[in-house]
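Attaching the record inline, Q. Sequence:
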Amino acid sequence: MPDTSSTSDFRNLMLAIRERWVSSALIALSVSLLLASYLLTRPAEYETSAGLLVERSKEMVLNVEQVVNTEVEQDFLDSFLSTQIEQLTTSSFLAEVAKSFSEEELELVLASYGLIPGEGPPQTNLLKTVKNEAKRYLSMLVPQTEAPPKSIEEKAASLLNETVRVGRVKDTMFVRITVTHRNPFAAQLIADRMAKVYVDGLARSNDSSIETANTFLAQKSEDLGSEIASLESRMQSYRLENNLVALKDKQNIVIERLRQLDDAHTKARLKRIELTSQRQQIDAIYQDGDLQKLAAATQSPEMMETQRELDLKLVERGVLSERYGKAHPAMIGNQDAINSLNSVLDEQAKAIHSIATLQLEKAIEDEERLREELTQVEQESLRLDELAAGYEALERQLETTKATYLKVLERKQETDLAKQLDEPNVKLVDPASLPIKPVSPNLGLVLIVSVGLGGSLFLGFPVVLASIDGRIKSYSEIGHSENRELLSEIPRSRGIRRRDRDLIVAHQSAQPVLESFRSIQSNISPAETVAFSKTYLVTSTVPGEGKTFVASNFASSCTQYGKKTLLVDADFRRPCLHKIFGLKNDRGIIPKLHNPHALVNSDPLTDPDLGLVEVQPGLWLLRSGAVSSKLLENLATSELPHLLRTLRSAFEVVILDTPPVGVFPDAEGLARYSDEILYICRFNKADSSYVQKSLARFEQRQKRFIRIIMNGMPRNRSGSSYYAGYSYAYAQKKYAY
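Structure, as predicted:
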């Protein structure tokens, strides 16, 4: 769906401007004329300028192009120019310029502004009055201390601060000193004098800076020369004390020795690990007693040979045992040989175990010896490295000092050359010219400013008023809800006497208003879902919104549609319907309730206590009968509800005119006896937030459908304004034969 909120807001702003265009135009015109009058009556001012060319200083120590890129270089130039401009606008510089003026020049500069007694342009009485009043009110608000009188030079410096502008010409190295003054000769004098004083000051400053820099650089070069000699002496002493003549050779020898010892230590450690593993294996086999396995593990030729002979004897014993018994000499000899071989094998095993132990001890001893030698060589290497590091530090310090010394000498030569050239980096290239025509008052600019301010006030004044005015002006400001809708917008009834407004429909006057009530009937009738009779409750947020006006005219419109209608004055606090129809308020609801024993007749039209009066054909009026604030108490009894039901059965349409719901709760009590609620909102009457709160509270408590009627809408606000100029007389005139 299209978003209409922005369109609605724009339309409301345009309507706000349209409603207040007369006052906005008067205010805008008055302010514009006052501003134009003030600007045009100001003294004439003349403007001239002097141009300075700013170059980069030749005394910069660093060569910028060699150390920065283009963007950084541009930033540097911008910063350099900004510094020059700031120096030209400092109070100390302006005071120096003021002191450079002679007495005649000071009189020329200050006379046009009345800063010299008896001099200066006359001021208008209005301007004098405004200034005097402003000073008087300021003294009342803020206690004023008597300031010491300013000297003539101080006055001149203050005036320069107000009349001088300094700026850079875009994308150039030019600086403009622009002076706006009431005297053209004074303007030219100030611009040229400021340029001259600044250039001369820079020249003096450059001379002083160069001399100071030269003295500093000479002292610095002498200090650096002494430091170089000291460093060279320290390096010589260091070499002699630590015997560093062949330091590099010593370091190479130590490094080679470290490598050899590290390789030998690694081999010794691996051999010790191998022998340790072999010794552990021999110990395990020896403890098990398996000498044959020990021979295989150690690969000893002696043991393997003894084991082979033992195996042969064992084979031989197996062969002999098949022929002879154990006591046979051959068997006995064989056994002796076996025992002898076992003894030999055991002795060989012990010898192998002892050899393995000795080899392991020797390997451990060798490894430990190599580790100690490696540690000693490493310490020697570290000592040599420390000596080399100390020497290299002195060497680097000497090189740095020498480089700085050469830079200082180069810079000193540059300062000597700059001193000989003695050219400032700021030059006056465009002296100020004598202005002929004044720059202010500028008629075109005054017109533009005045018209712009007037237009802004013309458009802004009504918009600001509309933004701070919270009173309701359209149905959109009420807020949307499912339980309410806009029924109609009744235009403002102008040219009609107040006492006749409540009978517009009856008298068939005020065609736009009459059409609005006809639209109310046409909008209500198709939406009716209950059979007659039907009760309408008419209320508003605050008094004065026209609820009685709507109730009386709506009742008259119902009778014109042939409906038997009863108009009830249920506003007991301020009854007024009887006045509209020229009746007394001596009969009605309250007298009836005070006589509860009198039964209601079958036809309430003939009930003397009610006093119903047919004020128009088909329209009866039920007055309140008195003034009372106890409507809710009466509703709590059975008499008033019974009366309302009786009246409803006797009429097709019953209209209850009730007090404002935002002030009194009476309408909320009567709402339960009504079918629909007609809620009146008058244009520019009640605050929109208060209307929203009252409607929300009313909807929450009553659960009734509410129809909103916007009353008193201007022609440009009302949705019915399209028909406002289309009366029957207009139609007859336009389309008559």
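The longest strand covers residues 46-54. The two ends are 47 Å apart (CA to CA).

More tomorrow.
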